[in-house]
Amino acid sequence: MDKMDIIHRLAKKLSDGALREIFPQYRPQVVRDLLLAETASPEPFSTVSKTENKTFLSCRLFTDGASRGNPGKAGAGAVLLDEKGRELVTKSEYLGVCTNNLAEYQALILGLRTAREIGCRKLDIFLDSELIVRQVRGIYKVKNAALKPLYTQAQQLLLWFDNYTIAHVPRSENARADELANRGIDERD
């Protein structure tokens, strides 16, 4: 039995009380989901050569998801800034037809992957979706079945960073990410 098998078995067998004792700051189901996701077949991380790109220690990430119709045609946008506020990378992606909350999670995942690819180790994340921010922080439970795998994927990506914060911002402060999310839809049309 290897280490991953042991982790997988423990995640399934430990009671909620035991998980609360070991990880008091997290809800037991969050810990269980993360442990089970960690023991699943991992998605390979894309790598960026340090000679090609500068390694950034501290970055700011703004993400937004847009859905025209909710559900409707949707897009994701992410903008990554250095600590001085200069744009490092922007991403737009067409998502097909989905709800706004699904688009918001997919935008967050797009941004987290991008931050990891360029070497950000400390990340300040900003979204205009209060729901997603509160779910990621563990304040709200993720009840929607369609959001649960995206939530787990986002939590798994967050483990890669040495330190991160996540905060809600008004739409007016997230205009660039919103523009990129809408570009994802427009370029598909």
Description:
By secondary structure, the chain is α/β, with parallel strands linked by helices. The protein has seven helices and five strands, in the order H-H-H-E-E-E-H-E-H-H-E-H. It has a five-stranded mixed beta sheet.
Summarize the structure.
The protein has 189 residues and is an alpha/beta fold.
From the coordinates shown, what is the CATH architecture of the largest domain? 2-Layer Sandwich
Structural domain count: 2
Low-confidence stretches: 41-53
| Shape assignment | globular
Largest sheet: spatial strand order? 3-2-1-4-5
The proportion of residues in beta strands is 15-25%
The helix count comes to 7
The percent range for helix content is 40-55%
CATH fold type of the largest domain: Nucleotidyltransferase, domain 5
Number of strands: 5
Q: Can you tell me the CATH class of the largest domain?
A: Alpha Beta
Span between N and C termini? 51 Å
Order of helices and strands: HHHEEEHEHHEH
Query: Radius of gyration in whole Å, from Cα?
Result: 17 Å
Q: What characterizes the major β-sheet?
A: 5 strands, mixed
CATH superfamily of the largest domain: Ribonuclease H-like superfamily/Ribonuclease H
Average pLDDT confidence is 85
Give the structural class: alpha/beta
Write the layout of secondary structure elements.
Layout: H1 3-13, H2 16-22, H3 28-39, E1 58-68, E2 72-82, E3 87-98, H4 100-118, E4 122-127, H5 130-137, H6 148-158, E5 163-168, H7 175-188
Parallel strand pairs: 1-4, 4-5
Antiparallel strand pairs: 1-2, 2-3
